[in-house]
Amino acid sequence: MTMSAVFSFIFREFKKILPPTIFFGIGFNLILFTTNLLLGDYQIHLSSYVIATTAALVVGKAVLVANALPFFHHLNSAPLIQSVLFKSGIYFTVVAIARFLEKLIEFLLHGGRPDGLLAYVATHFTWNRFFAIQIWIAVLFLIYTYISELSALFGDGELFRILFARRSTGLKEAHRMRFKTLAKLGRLIDTHTADELLDPKTAVHSEMNTLIRGLSAAAAHGQFSPDTRRL
């Protein structure tokens, strides 16, 4: 493997790990900050925020591991809620295992003996803190996975453009009509044969052409044509 291929691989992996790391970095630090406010501890402890950010990096790496699992995309064709819950559950499990192993490795690196692992887990492991953090991780993963699935559903960069680049005037109506048009096309494909759809003499062929022209006009001008609006 050449150096350029190695750097290309590292760059691709970095792009994958960056979104979850930023998301969970903001989430963990926000939880830490609000907890300090609730407890009346208004002093900023830089080390605590560094630990929270480091934990976000661990989560980001766990996301890469989860995405590489062979069964991770098993429910991609299922309803969105099933896919979100399924992937969030995998993320949650992988992160829980990674955090648990991290604590055990930390124990060993600080002079702990392998035969003392069970005693450490039984007597010194901070289970309350561990599960409290895992609950917040579960909540954050549900939000993260839902946003990721919506982004994949809308297409490359479309969700970002909807949120930050496009004006909201008419956008909801435009997308509603687009989905309605695509649903209409789907029903035509399900209820008619390919020969009927491709035969210029049939009414269904004319209807299909009208729908496609409407979508093409919408893509070209950023709005839907009168023909599409009547669907």
Automatic annotation (TrEMBL):
<feature type="transmembrane region" description="Helical">
    <location>
        <begin position="21"/>
        <end position="40"/>
    </location>
</feature>
<keyword id="KW-1133">Transmembrane helix</keyword>
<feature type="transmembrane region" description="Helical">
    <location>
        <begin position="46"/>
        <end position="72"/>
    </location>
</feature>
<feature type="transmembrane region" description="Helical">
    <location>
        <begin position="84"/>
        <end position="101"/>
    </location>
</feature>
<protein>
    <submittedName>
        <fullName>Uncharacterized protein</fullName>
    </submittedName>
</protein>
<keyword id="KW-0472">Membrane</keyword>
<feature type="transmembrane region" description="Helical">
    <location>
        <begin position="127"/>
        <end position="147"/>
    </location>
</feature>
<keyword id="KW-0812">Transmembrane</keyword>
